[in-house]
Amino acid sequence: MRIERVVGSSFNEASERSRKLYGLGVRLISSARVGDIHELLVCTDVADIDDDDAVRCASSAGVDFAEALHAEVVASTFPKRTPRTKASEARATVSQKPATESAAADQGAAVGIDAAADQGAVLVGIIRRELQALEMRLSGGDKSPALTDQKMALLEQGVSSAYAESLSAAGTDPRAICERLIADLSFGMGQRTFGSRPALLIGPAAGGRTTVAMQAAHLVAAAQEVAPVVSAVRDLRPGAREKFFAIADAAKVVSNWGGVADGSLVVDGGAYSSVDLQNPPKEFADYDVYLCIPAYLNRRAASVWLNIAVPLAGVIVTHWSDTEVPLGLIAALAERQLPLIGMSVSADPYTPLVLADSSTVMRALYQIMSLALADRETEHE
């Protein structure tokens, strides 16, 4: 008995060829399609075989075909791997070692980890210096090492290369860079119009948009001395309706689902994705559209929403924290000259939205900018 490989352009052609070559008693083992070729593996008894095969066939005379095939498979398989040592056995082995050997091994492992960390830090430093040198060569050598190092710090914070170049033109002083960024955010322009018309909030799912809708309604209602009313366009996601009403009840606002009620100050646009907003509906003309975007979103993910076709009246940043200022996200807003309207600093929907002002954002930006540039100067030295 031996296993042969027969190929053909189709299964029928390969089968016919196997019967012609090895007779009608040929047995099919497997069939596979490889590109334009059909491959068959067949098992057959032939007369013109070599000595080894003759011995094998003689020894298997009278043996069932399934048993013979199993023997062939077992004979051609790889040897099994040595089983892993059980955890209990490993612990027992370790416990039998002298204390001095264990201490020496632990010390050696700690030294190895420290050495690996040092090598990693050295490698990172070499790569950064090479990137700086390459950038200086590409720019014609007209940049000082300080400016190049400063741009690298901005890039590490998530600022785009083009906008980092623009900020570097303000000099090396962190305050001057922050002032340039604050000027591009144009706070007053957006806040003067916030609340004059119903605000339609859009943004990523699970980014705090519904909570911001309640917080913004309280802010506008207090300024206009009216009742806080929030509506939500129909959202077909499972549990969206129940979640909306639960948050509205916690915020103590008048809520409406599935349409825009009269007197609505804020509309939760949870049903609109970034793809839907590439062709905005006509009813968007009746609202001021504000983008709610979480502070933890990276610049690439945020750009999907910042580049939508809908004209944005401003941006509200959710999950805001002065200790973790999203410099890359703020720079992306400034690069597009989008007004920063406010920040949501609490998960409590009853807490009013915090309006953004230049002094508050300046303090937060200056803190993160100083730390970033100081770290780069330390690494450069």
Describe this entry's structure for a reader.
The chain is an alpha/beta fold. It has two domains: 75 residues, no CATH class; 203 residues, P-loop containing nucleotide triphosphate hydrolases (Rossmann fold), CATH 3.40.50. Helix content is 50%, strand content 15%. The chain has 14 helices and eleven strands. The strands form two sheets. Strands 6-5-7-4-8-9-10-11 form an eight-stranded mixed sheet, sandwiched between helices. Strand 8, helix 12 and strand 9 form a beta-alpha-beta unit. Helix 5 crosses helix 6 and helix 10 packs parallel to helix 11. The protein is flat and about 95 Å long. The termini are far apart. The relative contact order is 0.10. About 7% of the residues have low confidence.
